[in-house]
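Notes to self after the call with IL:
- keep both proteins in one doc
- input above output, always
- annotate only the second one for now

Protein 1:
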Amino acid sequence: MIVSLVLPLAHAEVGEEEQGSEVELGTLQVEDWQEESEGSAESGYRHEAARVGPLGKVPLRDTPYSLNVTSGELFENRGAHTVSQALKTNPTVATLMESNTYSGLSRVMVRGFTAGDQGDFRDGVVDRSFTFVPLENVERIEVLNGLSSFLYGFSSLGGSLNYVSKQPTATRQASLALGRYGGGMDYQHADLGGPVDPEGRLAYRVNLYDESGSTYVEGSHQERSLMSAVLTYRLTPDTRLFADGWYQDLDMRGLQTYINVNPASGVNVPSARHFDAETQYGQDWTYNKSHKSQVGVGFESSLNDVFTLRSSFRYGNMWRSYQYTTATLTDNEGNYSESARGSTRQTERTYSGFALLDANFATGAIRHKLTMGFTGHKYRYTRGNDVTTLLGTSNIDSPTDYARPSQTIGQTNVYYHQFYRNWVIGDRIEFNDAWSAVIGFNRAEIRQNVSGGGTSLGTASYTQRKTTPSYSLIYKPAREVTTYLTYMEGLTNGGSAPATAANAYEILSPSVSRQWELGAKATLGRMDLALALFHIDKVNEYTDPSDNTYKQDGREVHKGVELTATGKLTDNLTLVGGYTFMTAEVTESRNNKSLEGNIPVNVPERQGRLYMEYNLSRLRLPDVTLSGAANYSGRRPVDAANTDYLHGATTYDLGLRYEPELAGHKLTLNLFVNNLFDKDYWSYYRSGDGLLLGAPRMTSLTAKLDW
């Protein structure tokens, strides 16, 4: 059993967001009805609160952590259909993996580390996924930067991504959207919801989605379908029951190919100008098929003025299979060798949940908010060893078409079983209106059992336990300003060796990481501003070129500053964006002293985002909104020795939105162009796979009718 005590962080002024005028954290937060204006374009895409894991929904300005919320309406207006596109306005997030490659994964990097590598979250519950993350049933994405061990016991160093599902609305609503994106992908999306009975005790939200067409890569094709439903039932005025479920099928053909380099042998990162992102450098018979389904249940109940009980459980089941090609440059003239790699079906079953008892009480003039309970998850994952077949040679100026090889795919022979549980106790202590503190301790446990797959995997079984503390001091010099200082330790799962390493797929042992964070949050007019200075210290993991083994050696230190801004500069002008400046280096390397002072692989030390909208009401065109964006990512090293880098790049976007009324209903016509000037650039580097070209100029066009 997985147990966790987690504490509420603040007093929530809920207002119109939920039914009821005011709710304290630690008491029931009824979220039957979704806020109509929060996160909307009219509000400047601002959110007042977010779910902080099992803490529930808390005010953003009262959390002693760097927490950024991306509105669903914002990424819908940008024509985003993948996680990396949706989070393009967040200056703390860097792309790590794209979902249109062989893996089907969407992964991002925050503070130089993978965010959500221990599993993303859906409505505060762990939701592991190695397939395409659908956005059509997501109301917002919450990114908690840095360590989150106090909240979840274990920790993803980069942070955690929480996908908040669309909830039933107070009145009946329906929308239908038709559009095209990604080079030739046609889609249809229906979104329905509202109360079922006159009293509104039973309510629902249903999303149906289907797409089919070609991507921007020649010879490609993609099909995806999604069905999603949420039901809520108010058993009593203080008790709410809920259930949800969704499933998705994905079939991608003609996958884009990674371009691998080897700086140690003199083959350097080529200029992206020599490539064409629309050209198929692999083969059009490559594919990635996947399926995912999950169901969840839960309840929230206010027992009395002191105690509140909350519980949720989710079960997920998914599989994927793929065959793709790898390309490795053999010289600096554009020649490369090409191989086909196939895998047997990989499967995973995930069980996750929490049960929390909140208590609010006072000792004299000091207020306490305490939570007791459990949280965690376990999963079972199976796969077989990939089979690789050499196809031959090719050149970037005239890629060779090869026939699909007949590969004998091996049987499933690797079995992972990981189990996470946490014992946590914490208290939110309110001394007065200005000063408060958060003190907590977490007894985290990670268990791993691996069998099959060879010697390295066969010995990768362990159990590790660690008690880690977290301390936060919060000071409010003014009503609209919050400052904080937080120290946190976390038990972090080891990384997974890439497929090309000698110990391929091995998951290394857990380690303890530490983080300091000093931050300030303020609201100026209709703008929300946040500043965070951070320092993270963890074990260094890398592929040692001397023996091609993925291993742990020394420490890795990341420190930097993040600045974010969201809201309305004027009634007509909206701004979302910011900048991240970071220094990252390897320290205390024992086995390889030459690594000390180097930047870890694939870590960008500079990153900036600026997205702006301007409504043309001053020109007597109140239904028309112009938008534009600038997206900058700094250079990234492609090897541990820092022999070579992929260059930084800046791209620009442009959009036009028209929102007239049609027979009393709102019609939205949205045109958005990504990479307006069709810049050639490398979007990121993945260890073991190589470089991936950034997407070319792409147009998204949507027509949506609400009624």
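Protein 2 (the one to annotate):
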Amino acid sequence: MGVIYLVNKKTGIKYAYSNEAYWDKEKQQSRARRKLLGRVDPVTGEIVPTRGYTKKKEVESDTLVKPGPVPISKVQRSFFGASFLLDQIGKFTGVEADLKACFPNTFKQLLSIAYYLILEENNSMSRFSHWNRLHIHPCGTDIPSQRSSELFQNIDEAGRMDFFKKQGKRRIEKEYWAFDTTSISSFSETLKQVKDGRNKENDHLPQINLALLFGEESGLPFYYRKLAGNITDVKTVKQLMTEFDVMGYRKVSVILDRGFYSRENINELYKNNQKFIIGVKLGLNYVKEVLEQERENLKLWSHLESQFNTYGICKTIEWEYEQKRPQKGDTLKGQKRAYLHLYYNPEKAAKDQSDMNDYLTSLYNDIRDNTRKEYRMKDYDRYFDVSETPKRGMKISPKEGAMIEAARNYGYFALLSNEVKEPFEALSLYRSKDVVEKGFGNLKDRLNFRRLQVSSELALNGKLFVGFVALIYLSYVKKKMQDAKLFEKWTLQGLLDELDLIELFESPEHGRQLGEVTKKQEELFLALGITPPSL
């Protein structure tokens, strides 16, 4: 059988075909029959089989190998407890089933890498071989660094989006979704989306941005998107709405930080019938107007919620809706009902004053030392007058009026919603977006994603996806630990280490034997909602 290679002119994808000879009885001549084997990986040059070809091979192999458990061929003792925990979480969350449906040929290897990232904090893939010799895990074999790179590169966009769709549908109508972005630094000069951008952590390295979507009630992530490092939060909402439509999400409720606020984004949310809660700046004209009317009324005891140590009220407003219609060349206008929530928190007022004092001091020092920063130029002029004379040199005078005006809003903040009328329900939901920030912390620190050390776009996409899968497991454990108040006695790493001590002994003569499970370990499994292991 010969193999020929053809390139699809439209997509540029290279495919491999078998070229089998056969005898045509009707024409009494030898002819060639082509059969698609699969696409050619542009990086490795290997043939990636089509689903039909793979399925046939699997059927053929089934006729040769009898079904049943894999026989034990060697004597070994492995750590088992933490892997067992992750196995059960994969079943409860549907991650294992969804991953298998989307990546049927590699899902076990992807799960094993995710387990490794979770259980071996901050370790690179070069240490996987050592970890493999000591642990039970889904694929059960070593995954060398080169093989893991190939796995990352073969995670395609269709499979990734299908996984998001399946995970989202498990929770689509049960909760609000909290959406936020973070930046991940990189030294790579070959990644197209690594750009200089405004970094939330004051990190001056080039970066990419990563958007994450979390369920506020489940505490689990089920969508992420990679962005160029110079893309700001406010530009991502329209694309988010588009991808919701692609994945079949309808009437989703989202929670957004005020960095996503713009009139265009609010109009886009209304246009797509999305329910939302979003932070808004006090400097917006319609917010200032209502706040001035309610400033004193807001601080009445009747508006205090002691649980939050915060005063809050809700005012119904009319949102001036606009929708541009390019095909008709006009703009559709109207009014939509919205709920503006205003809050005052005394503790926040004290913190705002302290933060502002520090900020004003840093502005003053920049001017004095001639080290002004470009992104602060407006604030230098807003809060200080600077003059110079030949005799006295530079004179820096504070603009007291501007500082007094800024101080008037210490402790105040505002939210906007098109669904939630009760101010403290809105506040409780809005604060649940902290799960996204904690998720970013897990992704960067525990999963070793603070610096991206990959050299190709395909490897980056794959590594991010496997890291995201690992983040689902970590988020599940953290949520269960919080609900059971386990953080009072345990750290996340300490709990995983304690469960990881449970061993599994295997030998051809005696089969599989589970090691001792202590009462403490049984209690931890039960607190996490998992039935302790037994054979």
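Annotation: Residues 52-68, 186-202 have pLDDT under 50 and may be disordered. The two ends are 49 Å apart (CA to CA).
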